[in-house]
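Entry 14. Ran structure prediction on the chain below.
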Amino acid sequence: MTELGPGRIDTHTHVVPPFYADWLGSLPGYAGPRVGWSPDAALDSFDRLGVAAGILSISSPGVRFGLAESISTTRALARRVNDYCADVVRDHPRRFGFFATLVLPDLDGALSEARYALDVLGADGVVLPANVDGVYLGTPGWDPLLEFLDERNVVVFVHPTALAGPPASGLSPAVVDFLADTTRAAATLVAHDCLDRYPSIRFILAHGGGYLPYAATRVAAMLSRERDEDMVLDRLRRFYLDTALVGGPYALPSLLAFADPQRLTFGSDWPYEFRPHQSRDFTARLDAFPMADELRAAIDRRNAEVLLPRLA
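Output, structure tokens:
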């Protein structure tokens, strides 16, 4: 394993500490990742995917599953996850960063943990769920947290979670609901003028923004009753979008046609794989897709270096 190569920066790679895996295993009907996580296993995956550095985050369901956990339990679990991530980064400062986990809808706890993670642990940003109990990122209740993150110029990784209603019969929420969840969050942020009110937040949307590239013109038209449609499209294109599980001849043309080329980042989604080698296969499709060398370099590394200059 090399300590640092000239390769990609992965803004969508997940961490599953042993204690967190145990917690996931205790949840009713929840299936965690197929592959066991450790720093060495993550570095092996980086080397296979040509990744020089990855920004760790926990995936859905975060540190809260439904309404069962107490505030003290979720705060303690978030603190433990963030401390663990900081230790991994401390041991491999040029191979890892991390997006801190917050405790929502516990707003006081989220603000306290954000301060701790940013000021004490040196987190590279925060990860937020697209919705909490059906309340979407961007609605007014989120404003105190977004105000703080804007004041601190924080990178915010938006990751989907289960929709408020039941999933389609026989389908994991990750199959189609996650994409809708991210799209809802993006539209809500724009509808509530969050990109104008909080211009210093850099939002990264997971999985290529969900359905957003495909539906952007429709979304803009329907949000433009009191706004100019081109202005709405401009706001939608301000999001950073990662390439996790987007590789292929159908989704990539839509993503590349819609996105600002300077706001695309590489993502693998490892180790959450529904079948063996899923991250590798999607990365191979991305690599095989024809695009200009300059755009490929921007996606692989350069755009992330602007967001995360510590790893430049």
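The first strand starts at residue 8 and ends at 14. Will compare against last week's run tomorrow.
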